Amino acid sequence: MPLRRVHTDMKLWVDDLRDPAAFGRPGWHWVKSNTEAIRVLDTRNDIEEISLDWDICHTLGVEGLVGAFACTETFEGVTRFIGIWARMQELADFPITIHTSSVVGAKTAEDILTMNGDDDSGTFIITHKYGAKL
Questions:
Q1: What confidence tens digit (pLDDT) does each residue in 87-97 have?
Q2: Considering only 8-17, 18-27, 52-61, 106-115, which range has the smallest mean pLDDT?
Q3: What is the CATH number of the domain that holds 110?
Q4: Domain total in the chain
């Protein structure tokens, strides 16, 4: 007899640098890459909410000093996957927070999730936090 996996409802935090607990989201499952996020979305059926960053940074350390530096990578891949994933599951009013500090990134993510504004199906409830106020 195959073993059955038991999952509790998961809240997914997609961000390469920011710890969800530091932003008032203790207990959220933290993934730091497109690959990790897509793997979780593809293998779990109990995700109840997603909080999504946009920009991916590289961390660089020199002589004990560590800093994050912007690069051209983004969470666009997982954002596109989320759109497909939610529609395949026929979700309605699914809560997504875009918590990027990039206003342009937040707008791009929202456009992707709503299919550039052509989606009136009510698939997502999108909110913006932490500096991305549209």
A1: 888 888 899 99
A2: 52-61
A3: 3.40.50
A4: 1
